[in-house]
User: Fold this.
Amino acid sequence: MTANPLVTDPPADVAPPATTPGVTFASGGETLLGVLHVPAGPGPHPIVLLLHGFPGMERNFDVAQALRRAGYATLVFHYRGSWGMGGSWSWGHVLEDASAAVAALRDPGLVAAHRLDPSRVVVAGHSAGGFTALMTAAADPSVLAVASWAAFDFGAAGALSRQDPGARAGYVEMFDGELLPLRGTSGEALVAEMEEAGEEWRLAGLAPRLAGRPVLLIGTGRDPVSPHPVHHDPVAAAYRAEPAVALEEHVFPTDHALSDHRVALTRTLLTFLDRHVGTAD
Assistant:
């Protein structure tokens, strides 16, 4: 597209017009609700699954709207046990729900109704959603590319929690402080789950399973939630050491929500997608 999707709406005469339908899909016996941002034009449109973090205060709708203006369909949804969805929240359920969302985006009925391209699915996410995006792509070789910002490395955090009682207490307190929009869990349960998962959830270990695909990693330099020396730098180093991973890596001088780098985040993600995925327009 010639217009700048960061600041310009698409031409009014493009048909079919852009739409924003609510969509539902099943995961773990529950019905989950999402918002699909469908671009204007005939498509078929590549798809970006945008995964929010814990508990989901920042849902990246600004990113979703810009991607739509650029020609990418996006889906934002809530996991089980969060923001009114049925079931209970757990890290394992988040991973299962993300995989179910990818499958839903390839459903022939949804693809036909919204002019989607199921061969070009990208998974992207923030914080716990960044962790989930990388885990989901590693488990599904048909995911074309993956992007993560301010990812929380539950494998690294679990190891630190097992080794340091003070760190463990800090994680329990941090998780307990974010439970209002969630159901069926506790800070203690969430820490125990990441400790039990162990090395399976260490993001650096995913490098061989991401070989052959583009990966965007964005760390955050003023972030006490997922400080980059623990959650970003070792992951980026492992991916750089895997020659087949097409890694693009940045560390922005910003906080965990990228509060003052939203335009930089969106521009970086768009450039990455245009380089490796592209749109039909």
